[in-house]
Amino acid sequence: MTDLMARLQALGLMALADGWDDVVALVTTKRWSFTQAVEHVAALEEKERARRGLERRQRRSKLERFKPIADFDWNWPDQIDRPLVEAALALDFLPVHRNIVLVGAQGLGKTLIAKNIVQHAVLAGHTALFITASDLLLDLGKQESARALERRIRYYAGITLLVIDEIGFLAFDNRNADLLFQIVSRRYEKKSTVVTTNLLFRDWSTIFPNAMCATALIERLIHHADVISIQGKSYRAREAEQDTKERALRRPKPKPKPRTEAEPPPPPAS
């Protein structure tokens, strides 16, 4: 049996290997035909491979912990195109290789929306990756050879959905600007890219080496894109303020000092 289990695992029949006793008992009890038994094993393997595939895509997406879109307060921003956001969450843009650009000040939910788009893509069976602009360029910059760099660029260019978070928080030198341009250019009209930024497009020239570089990148991002502008006050600042108030209410009030009886007057002088 040990040899048989090893052979099943080598063939990739993990569900059958793990549940061998249950499968044998079920086939025996129900007196299934050979065809029925094989159909049952095929269904087990399909379910197991789907589960492993989801786990693999989830791991590679680098999402880590994030707040679900159900917790997003749509009434908080002063301006947000909710139907457009919901269309993005439904992945309407993926089949036609459109991009999504989320623009807004810090703390308005751009990253939350972007992460939920990645999660929906992963659940739908797509390869997806969430990464900050700084981490993306750090990864590309540490490649030790031109061949290694080209291989890494092909990796980022081939992902079905790439989310680049926080463009605008750091300035780019010539090399980093060129690397980012290569990623966006190779994905142009072939794969969908989601970008979050705290800067209006007219201000991108302040973080790129020159206006021409910024213009070329913007043109490729927004040529086939839905630009979602979010305006209002910081959602995180509001949550922090509410949390501070709630903790203050839960904090025990100081107990009043007990009263002390007045000391007796000193005895009269003799």
The amount of helix comes to 40-55%
User: What structural category characterises the helix and strand content?
Assistant: alpha/beta
| Overall tally of domains | 2
- Given as residue ranges, the uncertain stretches (5+ residues, pLDDT < 50) are none
Strand % is 5-15%
Structure description:
It is a single chain. This protein has about 270 residues and is of the alpha/beta class. The protein has two domains: about 1-40, no CATH class; about 70-235, Rossmann fold (3-Layer(aba) Sandwich), CATH 3.40.50. The chain is built from eleven helices and five strands, in the order αααααβαβααβαβαβα. The chain has helices at about 1-10, 15-20, 20-30, 35-60, 80-90, 110-125, 135-140, 145-160, 175-185, 210-220, 235-250; strands spanning about 100-105, 130, 160-165, 190-195, 225-230. A five-stranded parallel sheet has the order 2-3-4-1-5. Helix 9 (about 175-185) links the parallel strand 3 and strand 4.
TL;DR?
The chain is 51% helix and 11% strand. It is α/β, with parallel strands linked by helices and 270 residues long.
Question: Any descriptors?
Answer:
5-stranded parallel β-sheet, 11% strand, 270 residues, Rossmann fold, single chain, alpha/beta
